[in-house]
Amino acid sequence: MKILVTGGAGFIGGNYVHLMVKEHPEDTIVVLDSLTYAGNLETLEPVMDAPNFRFVKGDIRDRDFVSALFEKEHFDIVINFAAESHVDRSIENPQIFLETNIIGVSVLMDACRKYGIKRYHQVSTDEVYGELPSDRPDLLFHEDTPIHTSSPYSTSKASADLLVLAYHRTYGLPVTISRCSNNYGPYQFPEKLIPLVISRALADESIPVYGEGKNVRDWLHVYDHCHAIDLIVRNGKDGEVYNIGGHNERNNLEVVKTILKALGRSEDLIHYVKDRPGHDLRYAMDPEKIETELGWKPEYHFESGIKDTIDWYLNHKEWWQHIVNGEYQSYYERMYKDRK
Ligand code: NAD
Ligand code: TYD
To answer: What does the alpha-carbon distance between residue 42 and residue 101 come to, in Å, rounded to a whole number?
Structure first.
């Protein structure tokens, strides 16, 4: 099969490509990525010379470009990881989130309709369900939990999900959607909590914790997410949504302290800063559907997964130091200067 992976130079798409190039040598993977600040060709270095891999630079919003690519390549499967993905940036400037995360998705699906594909898969997020209370551990997000978004980011992702389901119902496009909880693992851009804490702790810099650090996220190793997507793409049912999560709820302070301890750094580095506006209190997924229907099970436990991840950042300093020393530096100063 020929598989188009959009956003494959980012965190999750990059890990997906690493795994699939190895595990499915019979398939050809073409990555389409516009290399925004979050896209990094160094992430794709391990697969660049693989015979079943190719990289194409381009923008999913560019209708003519996307159409020409589909006409030439005849893809069997399209998996869309491409997105603006950071909540804080969406609060600062929503526009690009609407353009990439909604319009980009319609451009991709129009090309799918025109040239024909076996499956369009949309990588979505638990954030479309909004927040859960932190004093009701019995409550989890199910696939039929109403959409109830908080940030421009989650609203753009929810809008895309609705559009994907509309293309299925109206045009019969064969689609699936996965909604996953927070990921951690190699190659994550250091604006996100876990790599931000690792990189700053290693430099003995302060760790910004929003509000009281009580917000809860449901952490899943990126490899578990990628294997779930692969299962859905191959065996999932058209028109269906699948929740992905590993029952790994931790509040932010617990996550930060775990990392500081593993790195032998003092908790005095923790610096409480002004909360994120509209900050969702708690996310927690019920993955029962993908477990029972497709036989998916996560392999990683948070305790060992976070240790592996910390080791990865220790052993790949060059990868993240290139980022931390570049454009991201001015973002950090801009984003955190008013939070003190
Ligand atoms: P990321 O920001 O690390 O990567 C996004 C990639 O998309 C980058 O390589 C970027 O260059 C590319 N891109 C952005 N705009 C583009 C455009 N217009 N055309 C082509 N390429 C473009 O994001 P991520 O964390 O890898 O997330 C991937 C997907 O998974 C996103 O759709 C996100 O909403 C979803 N998701 C992420 C998480 C998480 O914890 N990171 C959890 C659940 C779902
Ligand atoms: P993040 O990694 O941005 O993912 P998301 O907002 O999509 O869940 O943030 C994870 C949690 O960590 C979230 O509750 C916000 C919090 N956070 C901080 O406390 N400090 C930070 O500097 C960042 C980036 C996030």
So the answer is: 24
Q: For residue 41, what are its two tokens? A: 């060709």
Query: What's the predicted TM-score (pTM) here?
Result: 0.97
Q: Is 288 a catalytic residue?
A: no
Distance of CA 100 to the CA centre of its chain: 14
Which residue of 5, 19, 30, 36 sits with most ligand 1 atoms within 8 Å of its CB, as the best mutation to test the pocket? 36
Q: Which residue's CA lies nearest to atom 10 of ligand 2?
A: 193
Q: Is 210 a catalytic residue?
A: no
Q: What confidence category does residue 52 fall into, taking pLDDT thresholds of 50, 70 and 90? A: very high
Q: How far is CA 311 from the centre of its chain?
A: 21
**Rounded to 5 degrees, what are φ and ψ at 57?**
-90, 125
Atom number of ligand 1 nearest to Cα 14: 26
Surface-to-core class of residue 254, CB atoms within 10 Å of its CB (0-12 exposed, 13-18 middle, 19+ buried): middle
**236's tokens:** 């999932």
Confidence label for 332 from pLDDT (cuts 50, 70 and 90): confident
Q: Is the pLDDT of residue 266 over 80?
A: yes
**Ligand 2 atom closest to 197 (CA):** 22
Residue 91 Cα to ligand 2 midpoint, Å, equals: 13
Indicate the SS3 state at residue 309. Answer: helix
pLDDT bucket at 181, cuts 50 / 70 / 90: very high
Check whether 329 has a pLDDT greater than 80: no
Span from the CA of 188 to the centroid of ligand 2 (angstroms): 13
